[in-house]
Design the sequence.
């Protein structure tokens, strides 16, 4: 008689039914994997902690078969039990939502993505195995399917313009995996003195038909896919544009979300003009900075550790992760939201940020900011501004001018010697500028620092 | 290069892959084309074509098979055949003549060709000449061009003449041929004409379903994908309304394009077979009833909307200006259709892929709000409810408007209808509160003053009326004293249940009471004569007959249940004790405007009459009745006592300090509290703090300071709660309304509505419910529970609360519960969260249990939706309507919609403070009071408020007419404002019955003057009485047969007596109309007598309930012996008033109504009406009857008329020495009129008051009545007012009758009647000139009507 009244309609019949098909697909994929595993993986000896004495040889494929069977069961449950969503229980469990809630706080998100980045490099020989890749794929898909049962997750991920971003994540993941897999293989071969992959399977092909024909086919297929996409996933039209009423949140196109994220931490002049220019110029400068002649024409990591790590750091945690953050975690009023959190416009976050000079003069010394009296000559104003911001200037000066020599003398000693002063300084400054983003992000999140040098009089803030 | 093994992939495989990818691309391309072609609207349009074709085919068949048509065509065919045979007989002649025509025509056309060339040459020559003039040529050059022209022109002239000859020859030859073949050709032409309708229908049909294969093929081809882009029969239909613009976000205004007709293809299709009224060709309804569901139906009111002759023709209005929605959308979902309730939403989602597109800011109005859009242009609203031509077209939005006016919402929420002086919507604003303000606004051309009065009584002299105890008790909870009150409740609401408010509220109430009494000023009260002993019993009678019950209800005088004014049963429990209280009521009854200058209560002229023992002071008697007074006024003692409010000093100080904290520092406040000296100088204070400051800035003693603090808090509280929005309160003359303005609330940005925790609230609260299920008492449980009186409802299921199964709920908050419906209705009006006193019969004992009625609204809604889905409601039942309505609003609320917000705000205004009061300052709490609205009221108010968008369409669309239409609108508003229709019938009852027309006997015109009949027909044109409808009735012979329905306005003189046997039950109805039934003329007061079974319908009169009630009462009490006499005592129906009275007189009468009739038991009261209002109302009556206003020419007073009449008079009676008017004056003074009317300064003497009836004084007639009406009245008064006692003074004489007044006008009755009229019209002139007539002619026997 008394029906349960949910606060949000978490799952609906159509969602459950749709998920049933996804699970069925997962089952089919894993059923095929069972076949492969049976042919390749062989047996594993189970002892069950001595319960089985010396143990019993069990085919690894058996575990995959068990997993696949479970998926089939889950799929059947979805496909048959969809008409009573109120009492459906195969949902994202709350105990999993809690850690994700924490992981999606910005500092932990950034920390976590950096950690994943490091793990990716350190554990590269493990996670690039086919089985590990398959396990990761399965885990990520299970995470998605379970999360889809959450109303708020569905609202965010299911937006038509967010769907390609999910696809992009899988594509980026796959190609990163592919790179590391080939590099690990090549590095191993090099260590063992075997020929490289590229040498062993000579991949030189003819322009016609191998290259051009393939390109033509790709073109045709991509056109077909785009048409199908255009029909199935209609353009997400919103309300007529109005200057008086802008959407909340107002988001940049997905590929610029990294830039938009930078705008939070930097002066618009810095984030909108200086840093993007530096990124473009920096990317152009790479060939001239790079002195490492190894790694040309073949996959390798060990021979180009610094170059690959630096690039990937800039690309994965600082660009792709920022897009993810901007797309899925930034909600109304540009606040952070967990993927399972309702995008409530009423959520307020303490965002009273402080400039370094304010912190120094007002909070530490208990004084007023030194400001030149109105009407004083320009040079006096200038002096006063520099006086006011002296600590910031000191830090920035130290960061940009003192750190590079120190680095040259220590961690980058080899680099400095091989590159010469000019090339080294360019490299050092590019790296420092890149690192300024995570530094400022962390400072903002942790101590609410706004600007290190704040000179609104000259529209100059750092 | 040949294929080798060096290839990366085998070419064969590549070819296969390429082939597959190419196939894929082909497939997706075709898919794309299909997706583009497969538009949703195409299906609808195709179906629409098929419906149209079906209808056209049916019409074609009907046309062809119509017997008279068939016969005609056959006859024509025969005629043609005969004529052809005739022609065939003279074939040789015909051939020769045809050849002749041909040759002549040939010659003519050949000549014409040449002529045309020459004409062209001539034109060139003329142009050359003109150019030469332009170029200033002279001499030879000019002469040459002129000569050239003349030469050619001469040639042309010759040829023109020749052409005329040829032409004539052709005509002659044709005529000659026609001689022979003319008959045949005429018949053929006739046949063609006869077939035109069929041909047209067939042509229309041919367009949809061609009858030949090339056309069929072409049509099918044009429908194919891609090709359909080139002028396909299936296409998007667009209506473009360039002047009806729409705002699209920040893009400015753009013209409207409505594509609705793409699917609703037949929306404006008129049924051209029906000629009498505008009917839709595709009636809306269910398919199984042979009707057409959406989108295939025609608009249900083509006479009002879309039709070419309607006021809203399609090309000018389109669809979305009224219905809203996305006009450019071509799919069900994109058009932003809006479901009327969640069940429909689910149905649409399932069948039409519907979703709530919240990105489109103007979703279509759901059915429940379909009237909202009307008020964009119909800013006066009134005409949507009362409309002479179309009836009530938008009654719901009009009701919403009415509710807003009645409950005075505009007191707090201004509804500004003007932007400068430009009209932007309905205007509901308070009138200027002071004359200075009014003058200020009148001076400013860019301002228009508000017109609304404050709806509550003035509180300026409150101290003379009530004591503090009553005021406090009333303020706290008005409905406790008067359950039907319209005053909303401000206290004991949802957000005042916490200890904070519980502590503060009583102090606030005490302070407000203190302020109101303290600031109350005295006014001059009236008292009855000192020794007058008021008589309560007589007072009760006067209460009924003097018209009090028109507006007020009193339990001792049941019958009318009027709710215009407050219910008065308990006045004796609220007024001050002793003479003060009595005098207050006495003054209020006698001269209400003394106490409250802007009251709607009229001055009733209840003046005391008589002296000594015979003195009757009606006002005092009525006051005694209302106060249950038995003794002298000074003995009055209220029947209830109220404890005077007390204010806890500590809490008072706390509150005062709290509010002072907004402008003073804590230190200043502490100082003030100690010393009583306000720290800021008096002239610097603008706000309510002025109450804390003395004139001399001095310190106060403790008692005075307490008084000051109370005044301050009282004033502050009145400011905060906005009491002055409804009441006139001292010091609040300049105060502005406290609420949100509503003029554009209908488009308010949803993100600006504060929904707060309403979802949480409704999840667990919001539904008044005792937590039990109740059922009606059935016989079984009555027996089982040994119940003596079967009243109340039985608890059928209980969940362990205070109520148990088998408890019988007898009452809620003191109101008896009659049935389950009422149980729920009463519960919805309780305040959620507060306690309800439930009267319960448990185990034979009555007891009262106090319970909190609180449950989950969401649960109720879910339950309702579930029941709707399972079809558990009776189809179309009120319950279903109510539940789906609630579901709609809750759904809207959950999606942050405006309707839902509004609904909940009106239902439970403070619920938005749920769990908010804990964290917000006391001052910020919501203060909107709870009004006693039913859920239907809420629906109506929402319909009105959502229509307030302040987006006026182009000026030409605005409906704000002047002239007669405007006068009608303004008049209707005033009639509503002053409750005119409470007393007066504005339209008589409408009777429809199945008439045996053959048995109806026509009125006899031979007993009337022909001139009289002509005048009757002029003033009351004959109206066709039959409606064209029929009703099947069992006749006297037992056979059921259809009889035509006759419809007329009239009064029921006799209703069937239930005691009679069924076959004897009959109606006697007097028609007031001049009717024509089956060719027979029926003059007014025609008595229709028909069996009760023949009655189709009686539509109640518009207004006049009191008159009817009073007539019955007078009859029942024996005051009047006959119904017609009783009617003469009651307020008269205002039937055709515009043809009767002169507008200037009516204006004066409305401003200051003099005593008119001597027969009535009450007088027309004087309303507190402005000149403007009286003018408008006077104009209204003229406008309704289509007569000119505001002034009318009285031609009978003009010299032209008088001279002509005089000349004619002397011609007819050459011997007469006096002039026409003098003789007329003698006629008027003849012993005819004087029998009942005072004439020419001589007072009428009524010898037997029981029998004789005194008519109105005749001196009133000349300024009051229109001459035509007056003449008709003199001819036959019963034609005008059937119940009158006035006889026809001079009807046509029967042959051989005695001559009447032979010395006047030669005893010619017609002349005498006319002269009476003229004498009355020129009354003052004649009175001045002729004075009293010394000697009156002797009456002849049988003079006048006599009876």
Sequence:
């Amino acid at each position: 008689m008394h029906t349960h009244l949910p606060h949000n309609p978490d799952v609906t019949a159509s969602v459950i039914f749709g998920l049933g098909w996804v699970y069925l697909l997962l089952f089919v994929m894993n059923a095929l994997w069972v076949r492969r595993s049976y042919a390749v993986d062989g047996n594993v000896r189970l002892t069950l902690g001595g319960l089985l004495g010396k143990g019993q040889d069990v085919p690894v494929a058996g575990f995959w078969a068990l997993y696949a069977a479970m998926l089939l069961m889950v799929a059947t449950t979805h496909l048959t039990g969809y008409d009573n969503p109120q009492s459906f229980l195969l949902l994202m469990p709350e105990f999993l939502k809690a850690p994700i809630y924490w992981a999606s706080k910005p500092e932990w998100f950034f920390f976590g993505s950096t950690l994943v980045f490091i793990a990716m490099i350190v554990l590269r020989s493990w996670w690039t195995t086919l089985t590990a890749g398959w396990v990761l794929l399965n885990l990520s898909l299970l995470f998605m399917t379970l999360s889809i049962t959450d109303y708020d997750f569905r609202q965010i991920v299911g937006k038509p313009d967010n769907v390609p971003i999910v696809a992009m994540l899988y594509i980026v993941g796959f190609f990163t995996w592919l790179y590391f897999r080939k590099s690990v293989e090549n590095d191993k071969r090099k260590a063992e003195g075997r020929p490289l992959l590229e040498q062993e399977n000579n991949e030189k092909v003819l322009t016609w038909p191998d290259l051009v024909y393939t390109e033509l086919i790709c073109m045709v297929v991509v056109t077909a896919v785009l048409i199908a996409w255009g029909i199935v996933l209609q353009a997400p039209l919103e309300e007529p544009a109005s200057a008086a009423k802008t959407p909340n949140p107002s988001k940049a196109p997905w590929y610029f979300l990294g830039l938009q994220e930078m705008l939070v931490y930097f002066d618009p002049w810095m984030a909108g003009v200086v840093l993007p220019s530096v990124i473009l110029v920096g990317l152009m400068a790479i060939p001239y900075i790079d002195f490492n002649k190894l790694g040309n024409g073949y996959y390798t990591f060990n021979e180009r550790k610094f170059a690959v790590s630096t690039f990937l750091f800039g690309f994965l945690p600082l660009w792709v992760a920022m897009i993810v953050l901007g797309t899925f975690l930034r909600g109304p009023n540009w606040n952070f939201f967990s993927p399972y959190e309702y995008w409530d416009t009423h959520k307020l976050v303490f965002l009273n940020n402080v400039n370094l000079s304010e912190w120094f003069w007002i909070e530490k010394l208990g004084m007023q900011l030194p400001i030149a009296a109105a009407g004083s000559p320009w040079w006096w104003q200038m002096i006063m501004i520099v006086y006011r911001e002296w600590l910031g200037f000191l830090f920035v000066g130290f960061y940009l001018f003192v750190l590079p020599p120190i680095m040259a003398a220590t961690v980058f000693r080899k680099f400095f010697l091989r590159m010469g002063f000019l090339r080294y300084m360019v490299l050092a400054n590019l790296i420092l500028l890149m690192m300024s983003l995570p530094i400022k992000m962390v400072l903002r999140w942790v101590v609410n620092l706004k600007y290190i040098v704040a000179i609104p009089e000259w529209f100059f803030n750092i | 290069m040949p294929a080798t093994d060096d290839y990366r992939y085998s070419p064969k495989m590549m070819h296969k892959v390429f082939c597959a990818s190419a196939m894929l691309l082909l497939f997706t391309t075709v898919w794309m084309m299909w997706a583009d072609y497969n538009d949703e609207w195409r299906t609808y349009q195709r179906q629409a074509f098929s419906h149209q074709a079906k209808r056209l085919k049916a019409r074609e068949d009907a046309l062809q098979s119509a017997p008279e048509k068939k016969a005609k065509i056959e006859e024509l065919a025969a005629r043609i055949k005969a004529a052809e045979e005739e022609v065939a007989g003279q074939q040789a002649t015909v051939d020769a003549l045809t050849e002749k025509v041909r040759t002549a025509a040939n010659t003519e056309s050949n000549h014409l060709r040449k002529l045309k060339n020459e004409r062209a040459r001539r034109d060139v020559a003329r142009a050359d000449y003109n150019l030469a003039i332009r170029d200033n040529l002279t001499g030879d050059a000019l002469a040459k061009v002129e000569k050239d022209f003349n030469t050619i022109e001469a040639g042309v002239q010759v040829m023109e003449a020749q052409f005329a000859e040829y032409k004539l020859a052709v005509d002659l030859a044709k005529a000659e041929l026609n001689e022979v073949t003319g008959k045949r050709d005429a018949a053929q032409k006739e046949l063609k004409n006869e077939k035109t309708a069929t041909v047209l229908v067939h042509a229309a049909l041919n367009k949809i379903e061609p009858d030949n294969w090339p056309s069929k093929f072409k049509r099918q081809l044009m429908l194919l994908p891609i090709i359909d882009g080139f002028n396909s029969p299936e296409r998007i239909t667009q209506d473009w309304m360039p002047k009806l613009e729409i705002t699209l976000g920040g893009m400015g205004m753009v013209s409207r394009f409505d594509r609705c007709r793409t699917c609703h293809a037949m929306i404006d299709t008129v049924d051209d077979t029906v000629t009498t009224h505008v009917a839709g060709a595709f009636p809306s309804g269910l398919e199984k009833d042979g009707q057409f569901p959406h989108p295939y139906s025609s608009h249900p009111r083509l006479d009002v909307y879309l039709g070419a002759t309607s006021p809203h023709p399609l090309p000018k209005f389109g669809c979305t200006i009224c219905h809203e929605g996305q006009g450019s959308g071509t799919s069900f979902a994109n058009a932003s259709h809006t479901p009327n309730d969640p069940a429909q939403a689910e149905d649409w989602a399932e069948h039409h892929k519907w979703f709530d597109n919240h990105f489109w800011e103007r979703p279509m109005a759901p059915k429940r709000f379909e009237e909202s859009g009307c008020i964009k242009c119909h800013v006066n609203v009134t005409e949507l409810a009362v409309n002479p031509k179309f009836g009530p077209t938008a009654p719901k939005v009009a009701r919403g408007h009415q509710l807003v006016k009645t409950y005075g919402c505009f007191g707090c929420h201004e509804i500004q209808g003007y932007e400068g002086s430009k009209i932007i919507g309905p205007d509901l604003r308070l009138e200027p509160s002071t004359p200075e303000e009014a003058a200020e606004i009148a001076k400013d051309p860019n301002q228009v003053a508000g017109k609304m009065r404050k709806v509550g009584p003035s509180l300026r002299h409150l101290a003379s009326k009530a004591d503090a105890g009553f005021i406090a008790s009333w303020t706290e909870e008005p409905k406790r004293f008067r359950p039907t009150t319209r005053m909303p409740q401000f206290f004991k609401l949802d957000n005042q249940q916490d200890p904070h408010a519980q502590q503060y509220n009583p102090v606030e109430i005490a302070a407000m009471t203190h302020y109101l009494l303290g600031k109350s000023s005295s006014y001059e009260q009236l008292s009855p004569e000192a020794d007058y002993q008021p008589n309560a019993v007589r007072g009760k009678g006067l209460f009924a007959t003097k018209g009090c019950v028109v507006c007020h209800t009193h339990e001792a005088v049941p019958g009318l249940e009027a709710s215009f004014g407050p219910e008065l049963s308990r006045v004796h429990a609220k007024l001050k004790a002793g003479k003060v209280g009595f005098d207050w009521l006495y003054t209020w009854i006698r001269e209400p405007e003394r106490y409250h200058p802007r009251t709607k209560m009229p001055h009733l002229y209840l003046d005391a009459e008589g002296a000594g023992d015979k003195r009757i002071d009606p006002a005092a008697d009525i006051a005694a009745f209302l106060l249950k007074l038995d003794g002298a006024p000074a003995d009055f003692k209220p029947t209830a006592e109220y404890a005077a409010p007390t204010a806890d000093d500590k809490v008072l100080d706390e509150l005062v300090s709290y509010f002072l904290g907004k402008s003073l520092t804590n230190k200043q406040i502490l100082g003030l509290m100690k010393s009583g000296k306000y720290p800021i100088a008096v002239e610097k204070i603008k706000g309510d703090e002025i109450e804390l400051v003395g004139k001399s800035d001095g310190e106060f003693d403790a008692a005075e300071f307490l008084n000051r603090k109370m005044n301050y808090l009282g004033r502050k509280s009145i400011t905060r709660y906005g009491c002055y929005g409804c009441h006139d309160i001292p010091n609040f003359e300049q105060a502005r309304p406290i609420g949100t303005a509503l003029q554009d609330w209908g488009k308010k940005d949803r993100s600006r509505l504060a929904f707060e925790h309403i979802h949480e609230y409704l999840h667990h609260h919001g539904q008044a419910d005792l937590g039990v299920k109740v059922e009606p008492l059935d016989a079984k449980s009555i027996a089982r529970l040994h119940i003596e009186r079967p009243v109340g409802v039985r608890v059928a299921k209980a969940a362990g609360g205070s109520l148990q199964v088998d408890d019988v709920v007898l009452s809620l908050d003191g109101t008896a519960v009659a049935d389950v419906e009422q149980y729920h209705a009463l519960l919805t009006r309780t305040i959620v969260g507060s306690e309800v006193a439930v009267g319960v019969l448990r185990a034979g004992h009555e007891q009262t249990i106090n319970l909190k009625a609180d449950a989950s609204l969401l649960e109720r809604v879910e339950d309702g939706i579930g029941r709707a889905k399972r079809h558990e409601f009776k189809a179309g039942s009120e319950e279903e309507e109510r539940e789906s309505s609630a579901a709609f609003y809750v759904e809207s609320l959950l999606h942050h919609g405006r309707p839902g917000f509004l609904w909940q705000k009106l239902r439970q205004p403070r619920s938005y403070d749920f769990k908010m009061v804990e964290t917000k300052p006391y001052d910020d709490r919501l203060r909107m009071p709870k009004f006693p609205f039913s859920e239907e009221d809420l629906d109506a108010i929402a319909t009105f408020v959502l229509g307030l968008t302040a987006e006026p369409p182009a000026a030409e669309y605005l409906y704000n007419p002047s002239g007669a239409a405007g006068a009608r609108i303004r008049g209707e508003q005033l009639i509503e404002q002053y409750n005119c229709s409470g007393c007066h019938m504005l339209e008589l009852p409408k009777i429809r019955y199945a008439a045996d027309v053959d048995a109806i006997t026509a009125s006899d015109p031979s007993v009337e003057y022909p001139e009289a009949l002509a005048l009757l027909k002029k003033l009351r044109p004959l109206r066709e009485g039959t409606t064209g409808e029929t009703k099947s009735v069992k006749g006297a012979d037992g056979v059921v047969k259809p009889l035509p329905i006759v419809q007329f306005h009239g009064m029921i003189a006799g209703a069937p007596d239930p005691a009679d046997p069924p076959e004897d039950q009959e109606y006697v109805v007097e028609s007031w109309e001049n009717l024509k039934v089956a060719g027979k003329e029926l003059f007014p007061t025609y008595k229709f007598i028909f069996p009760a079974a023949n009655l189709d319908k009686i539509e109640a009169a518009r207004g006049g309930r009191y008159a009817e009630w009073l007539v019955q009462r007078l009859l029942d009490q024996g005051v009047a012996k006959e119904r017609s006499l009783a009617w003469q005592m009651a307020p008269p129906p205002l039937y055709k008033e515009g043809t009767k009275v002169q507008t200037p007189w009516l204006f004066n009468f409305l401003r200051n109504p003099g005593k008119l009739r001597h027969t009535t038991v009450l007088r027309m009261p004087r309303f507190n009406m402005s000149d403007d209002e009286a003018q408008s109302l006077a104009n209204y009556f003229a406008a309704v009857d289509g007569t000119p206003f505001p002034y009318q020419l009285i031609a009978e007073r003009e010299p032209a008329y008088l001279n002509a009449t005089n000349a004619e008079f002397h011609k007819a009676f050459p011997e007469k020495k006096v002039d026409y008017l003098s003789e007329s004056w003698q006629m008027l003074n003849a012993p005819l009129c004087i029998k009942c009317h005072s004439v020419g300064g001589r007072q009428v003497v009524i010898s037997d008051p029981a029998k004789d009836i005194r008519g109105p004084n005749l001196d009133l007639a000349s300024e009051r009545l229109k001459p035509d009406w007056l003449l008709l009245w003199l001819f036959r008064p019963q034609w005008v007012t059937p119940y009158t006692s006035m006889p026809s003074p001079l009807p046509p004489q029967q042959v051989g009758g005695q001559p009447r007044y032979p010395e006047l006008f030669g005893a010619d009755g017609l002349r005498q009647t006319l002269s009476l009229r003229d004498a009355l019209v020129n009354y003052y002139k004649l009175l001045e000139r002729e004075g009293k007539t010394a000697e009156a002619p002797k009456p002849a026997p049988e003079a006048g009507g006599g009876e």
